[in-house]
Amino acid sequence: MDQGWAAIIAATVGLVGALGGALAGGYAAIRGAREGAERAARAALEHAARQARDQHEHWLRQERRAAYADMLKDVDEHEMKVAQLVSCAENGDMGAQLLEAMADVHSSQIRIIRRSGPVMTIASHGVREAYKTYVEVCRRMSAYLMERQPTDVDGDEARQYYRAIVLRGSVLTMAVAADIQTGPTVPTGE
Predict the structure, then answer these.
(1) pLDDT per residue as tens digits for the range 159-174
(2) CB 153, CB 113: distance < 8 Å
(3) pTM (2 decimals)?
(4) Residue 52 and residue 38: Cα distance in Å, rounded?
(5) How far is CA 103 from the centre of its chain?
């Protein structure tokens, strides 16, 4: 009978040891699985955040390029209208052609000013500053034109304004080119 009890005790100790080992192993497995799942979830969240950030930056670059393209188109058109006005003033045409040229200059400047909102919202600091300067030169020319009757528009003064506008337009174009090539993907708010 002692052997029977010894076998039962040995079996019980073995069973307790096996259950303890199973419990410890199960706990370690559960803990390992939880840590693995947490790491996988963190990695997935980081990947999703990075992908969302990349998509936002790509969208912002596309919007910036579209706004810049529209702005530069308006700048070119404005410069053409100012050149036509200068040509009329230098040729001594003080009639309907000069009046029409003055109206065209004002209309094209209004388009440039209306473009300010989208451009200033997404542009880099350099482009914003160049745009502000360009608009200011255009406003000075408009003020000059508004103070005069068509017969008072001096061809030399109009040409000086035209040169200033073209110069500022070139600076603006260079700022846009630099921003598109190397610019920030998020407005800096400087």
Answers:
(1) 899 999 999 999 999 9
(2) no
(3) 0.69
(4) 21
(5) 33
